[in-house]
Specification:
Elements lengths: L5 H6 L3 E5 L16 E2 L2 E2 H9 L6 E4 L4 H4 L5 E3 L9 H11 L4 E6 L7 H9 L8 E5 L2 E10 L3 H9 L5 H6 L4 E5 L12 H7 L6
Parallel strand pairs: 1-4, 1-6, 4-5, 7-9
Antiparallel strand pairs: 2-3, 6-8, 7-8
């Protein structure tokens, strides 16, 4: 898809990783990114927002690659089997990212908007310092921005047994981007109940 905001894309160079590689336990084992919300897969809603902001859109998926491929420039999968968690997907994304920064978002947050992404990008300062949305004092790892130069250190942390993306980033001077407790852009629709509250249509 051709960017409708080429100047904006050039001004905000980053790779973008959409995490869609989870087990989907709270969705009854469904692939969350492909669950329908308002007539389209969740991944389609997120991709529509971020597509104009990067020429390097990566999706982390551990199944249904053929269905995710039209939404991304690159696909990655976890190096380990059995859905080891978001940090595994982030490591895979960092390894292929084409830009110095990687923005990490969840596939099940379809109300994300470009303004929040720009706020994260504009908050960049120290090139070695990752950022993460903090909602009413609570860190939100699925809304993160990190320098790709951290790949080696994050991979070392993984090899030493770390499995938490939050803890791994805190060790590298993680900075917050504060957001309100009721900010609807941060809503994760990770269960059928949450989806049904905002979408009267049944799951496909």
């Amino acid at each position: 898809m051709t960017s409708s905001h080429p100047a904006q894309s050039a001004a905000l160079p980053c790779s973008i990783l959409l995490l869609a590689g989870g087990r989907g336990s709270r969705m009854g084992g469904q692939d969350k990114g492909l669950v329908t919300w308002r007539g389209r897969p969740l991944i389609a809603h997120v991709q529509e927002v971020v597509r104009p902001l990067s020429d390097d859109l990566i999706i982390s998926c551990n199944r249904n690659a053929e269905r995710y491929r039209p939404y991304a420039d690159q696909l990655v999968a976890d190096a380990q089997e059995d859905f080891p968690g978001p940090l595994a997907g982030v490591l895979a994304g960092l390894a292929v990212a084409r830009h110095p920064w990687l923005l990490v978002l969840a596939c099940d947050a379809p109300q994300i908007d470009a303004a929040l992404i720009q706020a994260l990008l504009q908050a960049r300062g120290n090139p070695q310092s990752p950022l993460m949305v903090q909602q009413a004092g609570q860190w939100q790892p699925m809304f993160s921005l990190m320098p790709t130069a951290l790949l080696g250190e994050l991979r070392q942390a993984w090899d030493q047994g770390e499995r938490s993306l939050l803890r791994a980033l805190i060790a590298h001077g993680l900075r917050p981007l504060p957001c309100a407790a009721d900010d609807p852009r941060l809503s994760n629709f990770n269960s059928p109940e949450l989806l049904s509250e905002t979408d009267p249509k049944p799951l496909a």
